[in-house]
Every structure is written in C-alpha cells, then in structure tokens.
Amino acid sequence: MSSAEQQAPLDSDSGSRQVVPRRRAWVRITAVFVGLAAAGLIALLATRDSDGGSIRAASPLIGELVPPLRGELIWPQEQFVQAGGAQAMPGVHIGPDGVARFDIDAASPRWVLVNFFASWCVPCEREHPALAEWVFRHRYDGALIAVPFGDRTDDAVAFYERLGGNWPVIDDPDSRWAVEFGVLRPPESFLITPEGIVAARWQGQISADDPDAVIALLLGSASEGAATSQPGS
User: What is this structure's pTM?
Assistant: First the structure.
C-alpha cells in the first residue's frame, strides 16, 4: 500500500521482472467486487449521513489508496509487545533495533479503521468503548490503528493507560499523518478496505455500527455482483 511501485517476483521462465505500479491495485478491487463500480459506490456512501453522533464526511482520499501509514508504537506498553503481543496486532512488527512499529501495508488483507484522537478530546473518550467493541467484532478480519492529533506523546499514552485498549497507537509528533489524511479536529475515523482503498470518513464520535454499516453495504453489493455474474443469471 505504499506509494512506491511494487515489484513482482522474478519469472523463472522468462527471466524478466515485472514492475507493477501501485495504482494497479484497482485490478484486485475489480476482482473482489466482481465487476461492481466500487469507486461509484464508495463515493455514494461518502455522501450519506450517519445516524449517530458522527458525520459521514467527504474526503479527497475516498476511493483512493490509503496513505502509507506507518510509525513507532507508543501503545501498548513495551513489555506487552516484547512478550509476543505484536503477533496479535496486525501490521505490527518488532525490528532488529527492538522497536515495535506499525505498517498499514502489513495489516492487509483486513478492514482497517484509522482513528485520530486526543487526550483532551471529550468525544474521543466517549467513543473509546465503541472502538473496543469494533476491535472485538473484527478480531479475525479487521485492525484498528489510533493516531494522536495535536497531543503530546505522554498525554496520549496516559489516555490509553487510563482507558485501556489492545490495539496499536503510533506517534505522530510532526502531524504528518494528520496532514496526509486531512484531519481537521478529533475524533476523525477512516475505514480502509482489505484492498487498501479509503471507503469512508467520519468526523466526530462514532459507534461500532458506523463502519460496520459501510462494510455490510460493500460486502452486500459485492455479493449481488457475484450473483449477477453467474452463468444463466
């Protein structure tokens, strides 16, 4: 899911190396949605309001590949990760330097919910149980990554020490990822498809049902596309 071009393995028959641009990930999208106009559907979803306290907001990222989100973990605690907790967190690995890092490329193929929060943000605290519920629901097919917004690292860690959470939180001291995602104020959340496409954006406190409603629509449309593509249909 990085912006750089990805190289396919060496073809032993032809001896040639195929270079596949990242943008060709749309080929995989077409296969998954079985001919469905996925970009059109995602754009339609982006215009619908949520029934909860959040607003389904427009974003130039919707329908595009997610920015290559990665960074060092500031949560969970180091001893948890070193004890093998990283194996239970998709996208997290421990490098040769012993530092745990998150890479959204390594989290696929899963649904990924990216949540921007702040320790001083009251709606962020209110939505925290909903995030925990979503993680539990999608423990086999999803991943949550939290990113502090306009916050000190120590305060962000204290927020999670107080409220808990078994998902990775990465540091964003230079607000790089806040800028990449175009975040205005916390909380904001983005749903990423297993193919790495930004499907929806929410501004404000979300419920566990908000991203699941989008997932259900996308999966339902994919199933309908598969049914209509069967011979004799």
Answer: 0.76
